[in-house]
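quick one if you have a minute, typing this from the bus. below you get a single protein, a line of residues and a line of whole numbers that encode the local backbone shape. could you go over both lines and see whether the tokens make sense for that sequence. anything you notice is useful, everything is just below.
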Amino acid sequence: MYIKNGHFLKVLAISAPHWPTNPSDEHYEHHLNSSTPFSLQNAIRAAASCALSKNGPWGNSNWATKEGLYDSVFMSDYLNETLSWLKNRIKNTDIIFIGAMSISMKGAIEVAKFIKNFKQEIFIILGRKHTLETMFVDKSGEFCVLDSSPLQQMKSHNINKCFDMVVSGDGEFIIKSIGEAIHELKKDNVDPKTYIDSLFYDPHVTECLKSSSPGDWIIAALNKDNEYIFVSEESPMDIDKILYPVEIFPITSNFPVFNCDFTVHLYSYT
């Protein structure tokens, strides 16, 4: 394990499950379903690139080796498998990223509740498709939060306040920057319960987040039902500066409905 100093950052990343448990039928996986969390891998690739190159705070994390990184990123369609994986890795964790589509939001909530019941101070960041579609800036420049947004659902007390931060939009660089900021807060012995105040209101921290996080993104949080919102300046991303997921993560999926070698997903948006 690579540790430059005593301020080690432990991070996990989970693609939220959308079924409570896997069927007992041994043929249940015979369908077009990938176990590779490609969307989540895309969101964390800037952080992973820094970690593997031993660059900055991420170089002092459990992602600094390929073995540590691969063991820290997980996807299962089933909640029971996700919690079983998490139980063996959650100890001493600082940050957990959860990616969720709308169909897997219930699973994301259950995973977050499990984490908070284990240790309240673990910082949970929710992102990906559902947050992108429910929290955005519209064409007129107005910030919009739909009723189905996790931020609004927590504010309305329809769900537990189990997510410390919600990220919408281009996650690559802002996720890297949030991890770096939390590493510095941890190094300064800042109480994890006050991380939100520092991330949104400490001028030094917010300036670092803004200057080091290109892309079109929004981060949001709640504190005593007060919304904290930070909208990016939409500076262009240079994706050539970071590795593509295929350069970082191994191929782990195939579709067993086909009796052949590993395959990949192809999508067409119209």
About this structure: The longest strand covers residues 217-223. Strands lie at 11-15, 73-75, 95-99, 123-127, 135-137, 143-145, 165-169, 217-223, 226-231.
